[in-house]
Design goal:
The chain contains four helices and five strands. With 196 residues, the protein is an alpha+beta fold. Strands 2-1-3-4-5 form a five-stranded antiparallel β-sheet, with helices on one face. Helix 1 runs antiparallel to helix 3. It is elongated.
Length: 196
Amino acid sequence: MNHTRMHGFSMVEVLVAVVIVAIGLLGMAKIDAVSVSEGGVSATRAVVAMDVASLAGAMRANEMFWQTTSVPTLVTLTSSTTSKKTSVNVATPTNLTVGQVPSGNCANMLCSPAQMAAWDLSQYATALTQIIPNGSSTITCLAAVVNAVTPSLSSPATCQIAVTWTENSVAINNAVRSAANTQTSETQTFDQMVQP
């Protein structure tokens, strides 16, 4: 009796091929997850930069307030995901509070320079809450120095806007995470100097 040899694939060969393809698909899924995560991180950073630039522009437009010798030395804005409310705290001097924000919209009505500054900060704080939950922003200013005797020795006010937030990071694998010395979440800071 002559048995002819069977042609085709055995079940073991098919299973090995399925395992190899499955491992490849898992790798592709991980690469896609990292790509989506990094896209979100870069989008957040770009929006934070645009929001800070927007506040800097508003500060430059309101130099009647920001270029005085009584400019607030510290403004702290914080956001929280639990309450979705924004608190604005002002250190010395206390000439700028959220209570000064007019009931209307300073874009559509006449406001004093202090009201406009409070309204601008309120708008910035609202945007901050929407962009980076659990973030904070600190605006530290050095008041303008006016030298009436020698005007060339006068110096304008300068402010530093700092935004701090926590962002989640995804590494391609544990070896990359260890090599980059990254955690699953990292604190990021964006600073910009402004001369209103």
